[in-house]
Write a structure and sequence with these properties.
The structure is a single chain. This protein is mainly alpha-helical. The protein is 75% helix and 1% strand. It has twelve helices and two strands. A two-stranded antiparallel ribbon has the order 1-2. Helix 2 (37-62) runs antiparallel to helix 5, helix 2 packs across helix 7 (118-145) and helix 2 crosses helix 11 (220-232). The longest helix has 32 residues, at 239-270. The chain is globular.
């Protein structure tokens, strides 16, 4: 659809309205289930690598602040986290990649619009989840552990304490904290799909991710990075704790992405007053 031929009230616009975004999401959902398995896995591995690179950037910068300074002025490390961690989602959307949390919204909209069936949805989530996991772990091992970039404090203390904090968080807090995290991640995808130029897409991606990163809410793919990196550097991360964190965060992320953002987008587009026109 050409950007220079869409008009509202005879005025050109540089964004897509909700009906157009939904159609784009439907096309993306169908494309995802039509993609060969090997390519889905490859794109999932790629997204895992991008999240890991963002996590390393964040750990190097925010974790580079001495512990006493972080303790006295926690807003400094949070601000740096806001500036660094969103690059992962920018890489995924602009360059390409399959991210489990973003797909929780896209696939549910495609299913609600009857473009895909529930088997397609579940298979995509499973394929992408484990591809993200393997991509994260491989990237962490090769580029964070083998290189030894976090061997020294304060970065070492930062990644170990952060991973242990997550692994020791009670399950219901993980689940609840994961809901707003993926609401914001999926809103970033929605804003990127609404924009038509790359600068607007990057801004739309950045702002919601910065919000989620600053709060410390739980994102399952990000936690794949933090827990695996912390474990490799000696944190007390157990297999049971890892599985608990993955299960709770994935469930909360699905609630946030599929039931809140995806369902809300569907309701906004499908339950207008008959006389109401898209803005």
């Amino acid at each position: 659809m050409s950007e220079d031929v869409i008009f509202v009230d005879s005025l050109p616009r540089s964004y897509n309205i909700d009906d157009e975004v939904e159609k784009i999401v439907d096309v993306i959902a169908v494309r995802k289930i039509s993609t060969p398995l090997w390519k889905t896995i490859f794109l999932g591995l790629l997204a895992g690598m991008f999240v890991s690179l963002a996590g390393m950037f964040m750990t190097e910068m925010a974790g580079g602040i001495p512990l006493d300074t972080r303790t006295r002025f926690p807003v400094i490390s949070k601000l740096i986290t806001c500036l660094t961690f969103p690059i992962g989602i920018v890489f995924i959307v602009i360059f390409g990649g399959e991210l489990f949390t973003g797909n929780s919204m896209i696939m549910i909209v495609g299913w609600a619009d009857k473009k895909i069936n529930v088997i397609n949805l579940i298979l995509n989530w499973i394929e992408v989840f484990f591809s993200n996991l393997f991509g994260v772990v491989a990237c962490v091992y090769l580029f964070a552990y083998v290189t030894g970039i976090f061997e020294s404090d304060p970065q070492h203390e930062f990644i170990v304490s952060l991973s242990e904090k997550k692994i020791n968080t009670v399950w219901y807090r993980l689940l609840i904290s994961a809901i707003p995290a993926n609401v914001l991640v999926c809103l970033s995808f929605y804003l990127a799909l609404s924009a038509r130029d790359i600068s607007s897409k990057i801004i739309g991606l950045y702002l919601p991710i910065a919000t989620f990163a600053a709060t410390g809410w739980e994102h399952v793919v990000a936690n794949m990075f933090f827990l695996s990196c912390g474990w490799m550097y000696g944190a007390n991360v157990t297999a049971v704790g890892f599985l608990k964190c993955m299960a709770c965060c994935a469930t909360g992320n699905i609630i946030g992405g599929a039931l809140i953002v995806g369902a809300s987008e569907y309701i906004i587009s499908h339950f207008r007053n008959k006389n109401e026109q898209p803005i």
